[in-house]
Amino acid sequence: MPIRVLPPELVNQIAAGEVVERPASVVKELVENAIDAGARTLLIEIEGGGAELVRVSDDGAGIPEAELPLAVAAHATSKVATSDDLAAIHTFGFRGEALASIASVSRFRMQSCARGASSGAEIEVEGGALRGPRPAPARPGTAVEVRTLFFNVPARRKFLKSDAAETGRVTEVVEALALAHPAVSFELRSNGRRLLDLPATAEPAKRTLDVLGAELEPELLEFEERYPEIGGLVVRGFAGKPAIARPSTRAIRIHLNGRPIMDRTVLHAVREAYRGLVDPARTPTVALILEVDPREVDVNVHPAKSEVRFRSQQAVHSAVRKAIERALRAANLVPTFVPDALRGPAEPYTGPRAPLFGSGLQQPAFPRPAGDFSDFAALLGQRAHEPAGASDVGDATARTEPAILGEFPFIQLLSGFVVTEDADGIVIVDQHALHERAMFAAFLDRLGRGALESQRLLVPIVIERSAREIEILGEIAPLLARLGIEARPFGPRSVAVDAVPTLLHSRGADAGAFVGDLLEKAVEHGSLVSLEGALHEIVDMMACKAAVKAGDSLAPAEIRSLLAMRESIERSTACPHGRPTSIRIARAELERRFGRA
Ligand code: ADP
Ligand code: MG
What we know:
Number of strands: 22
Strand order of the largest sheet: 5-4-3-6-2-1-7-8
Structural class: alpha+beta
Distance between the termini: 84 Å
Number of helices: 21
Shape: elongated
Bound molecules: adenosine-5'-diphosphate, magnesium ion
Strand content: 15-25%
Largest sheet: 8 strands, mixed
Radius of gyration: 30 Å
């Protein structure tokens, strides 16, 4: 074929591939245009999941009759005139390609009446052919109708999912935009049925609750933090308690300057804030609203504008993480055992399980003193004298949860659970999970202050490992040194461990198994750099080995010091994997059940 310049309809259709993927993307573009036009009331109607019809009617500024044909021309926009404008975008649109793209793949009609005009006008576009403008009623605002999406691109139409699935996507898009624009009222109807009705409000928090569901209110922690030094960054919203984390990844909603985004950096920061509080397979419920000087961020990196680039990615990442961490820290996160009738049936824990009785590879050479917490108490004591928040690691383990006053009675039951009470009710503690969390915090804290102390063994522990694991020993030498481990190849299939971390040794933990697990991790990660990144995982492996097991019976003093850890340790309500360490039966719930209240 000879080289040819593509005809404009084809250019638009190709561009449509980027902008318009499904009915939800049409809804997004049309609603964004309406908001850009200053609309206060929006009606969104769909039929057949939006594949048959999408109609968005607004009460915004409208378009003068003479400009209607331009609105659907490619690269025609009223929002950007110079490249300076592009540097400080405050509208959704700016590429001027959405309407042209949508009109090229649908039966398109646009009716508008500009503010102050005495009559309206409408145009139609089908398969690239424009008809109009012709007169229309003088209804203020704009209505855009998109029928039989992809009627001329059958491959794309076939690709659409069921009506219900497409309707779900449309609902998500409308909810996302509504969250960011509480002052605009939104109504969504599907085949004539009302799916969403969100009245305008001056209070962003009210809109958030309207969208997330008012019944979740007790589970949501509100936060707001300002960072003038990061381009006037404001970080606010709601962080859901770990108990309402969901399997769906869509539970995290992020807005930047009124624009829903799905930015990887921000998403990562949110997940980091919940690290160890929520099972990694679940997603915390978070509504995060960011405002920043538009000059601090480039939104023009992705056609759907869902990824953005901040001038200082790192600063934004840490601001978001800290804001959410503070909200979580201030809250009482012990899940309630009997849920409120409002909150529906309890969702049983479905994540990974804790090992009940250790790894089964216990080294008989190390008798396990079930509950010698002496090192531990020393560690905690040491920390108490340090200024809080001195370093990142220190910050993560600072004592912040409200202390529970006085001594409460306790009892160890089912050889793994400690039952006690606090001001709010009866608390059941999983002794292994809580101790693991405590060990985790202590090890991490200790590592932040330098290499771990090492205990030389009288007789080396010899473990059988694969050739690759033996080979990697040399590569990870610096990490081993930090952890206080000395190990060397010992024949073609074995490793001799000469020294182990004192913290593990004194806990009677199976240090050989720990070194084995560590080598396995090292091979999995391939390089020391990424292994260092997995330090949390390694410390967790260590904590798990060092912690008391479910089957260990504990002396009263040991139990008391274990329970004390609930208050002295950050994130004590969940073990490092995000499993709960304790569950509470609220006093109020008991009183209700026994007919006392
Ligand atoms: P962009 O939003 O990037 O400018 P679009 O193709 O989405 O490009 O829209 C083209 C132009 O049409 C807009 O710049 C705006 O001037 C006008 N327009 C589109 N929708 C509306 C609306 N609902 N109300 C008023 N003007 C609109
Ligand atoms: Mg637009």
